[in-house]
Design a protein that fits this description.
The protein has helices at residues 12-15, 19-28, 82-90, 111-120, 122-148, 151-163, 173-180, 184-196, 212-219, and strands spanning 30-34, 39-41, 49-55, 57-63, 69-76, 97-100, 104-110, 168-169, 200-203, 206-209. The chain folds into two domains: 4-146, Jelly Rolls (Sandwich), CATH 2.60.120.10; 150-223, Arc Repressor Mutant, subunit A (Orthogonal Bundle). The model has no long low-confidence stretch (mean pLDDT 89). With 224 residues, the protein is of the alpha+beta class. The strands form three sheets. It has a four-stranded antiparallel sheet with strand order 2-6-4-5. Helix 4 (111-120) packs across helix 5 (122-148) and helix 6 crosses helix 9 (212-219). The longest helix has 27 residues, at 122-148. It is built from nine helices and ten strands.
Length: 224
């Protein structure tokens, strides 16, 4: 489906809404296009719209007072932002930032429409809270990984996932540290150990996977 004018049909929960509610979403929404590497929200800002992502990817990350960063989750096409949902429901400001990793198209509905539908449409309310519940569960899993799982296991797993089946990952030590919620120096030491074992080779801005089997065996500890 490519007709963004009928974007509600891209979201299974919204496509089951009654015709008047669908029409309200379509007539009151605005399709916005945002370039890559744009901060679309940040700490201290209050959301004025609920965003439904149609194309692209948005990275949501937390930044501490000391500048330490950790990726909380990513929003893909066909998803909404749980942090925006939480802020809209609580009339609160953002505590994290959202940055576009690719060019993004999204449907934006005003806060007033969101409020009216949450209070007046059970199917819409069910859609909002189902997405909210799933993302909260994902966040608890991430907290468990950061707090309790070995970094070498998590790093091996992240390299394999980022590779997408290829033999090379375009990334940096800093980006990996943000992904895994640790210091860049810690990532550097662990990558050096992987390289010493002959599992990877490093170059500026990239990591080559030389022994995917060994990395996969280590990553499989995530599931054990």
């Amino acid at each position: 489906m490519t007709d963004k004018a009928q974007w509600v049909e891209w979201f299974p929960g919204l496509s089951r809404l009654d015709a008047p509610t669908k029409q309200l979403l379509l007539t009151r929404s605005t399709i916005v296009t945002v370039p890559k590497d744009t901060t679309i929200f940040g700490p201290g800002n209050s959301p004025e719209n609920m965003l439904f992502l149609l194309d692209g990817t948005v990275r949501v990350q937390q930044v501490s007072d000391t500048g330490h960063e950790i990726v909380l989750y990513r929003i893909e096409a066909g998803q909404s932002c749980v942090l925006t949902t939480a802020c809209l429901l609580a009339y609160d400001a953002y505590s994290a930032e959202g940055i576009t990793e690719t060019p993004v198209d999204a449907a934006a509905i005003p806060r007033g429409v969101f409020d009216d539908l949450v209070s007046g449409s059970k199917p819409f309310r069910d859609f909002v809270f189902a997405a909210f519940s799933k993302r909260i569960t994902d966040l608890f899993l991430m907290i468990d990984e950061v707090a309790f799982q070995r970094l070498d296991v998590r790093l091996a797993d992240k390299l394999i996932k980022l590779s997408g089946g290829a033999d090379m990952v375009a990334t940096t030590h800093q980006k990996l540290s943000v992904e895994l919620g640790t210091a860049r120096e810690v990532i550097s030491r662990q990558l050096q150990e992987f390289q010493r074992r002959g599992w990877i080779a490093q170059a500026r801005g990239s990591v080559s996977l030389l022994d995917r089997m060994q990395l996969q065996q280590l990553a499989d500890h995530n599931a054990s």
